[in-house]
Specification:
mainly alpha; elongated
Length: 102
């Protein structure tokens, strides 16, 4: 194998690899341009064992009507208002007694 044959082999292998890279790039560009017209192709089909129960997606447990901002009747609103006033009054009494003690 002389120098001319080795140089030709090197140049042809480099050009062949660059040509393959260009062809793959062109295929990717064409695929991206036409992607909405393709249908999904399944390369692998997995066998489903009927004895095994499929894994179910975990969903958070939702409790019905636990929203504290949603009130049903005027009586509930009045009860909440009186409870809030009582808490405020006890908080005011506590703050007044601590101020007097200091």
């Amino acid at each position: 194998m002389n120098m001319d044959v080795a140089a030709m082999f090197l140049a042809s292998s480099i050009l062949l690899s660059l040509g393959i890279i260009v062809l793959v790039g062109a295929a990717i560009i064409i695929n991206n341009l036409l992607h909405r017209y393709w249908q999904k192709i399944n390369l692998f089909m997995y066998a489903v064992d009927p004895r095994v129960e499929p894994i179910k997606k975990m969903e958070p447990e939702v409790k019905p009507e636990t929203n504290p901002n949603k009130l049903q009747t005027q009586e509930e609103i009045n009860e909440l208002k009186t409870a809030a006033r009582a808490r405020m009054a006890t908080a005011n009494i506590r703050s007044e007694t601590t101020e007097k003690n200091q």
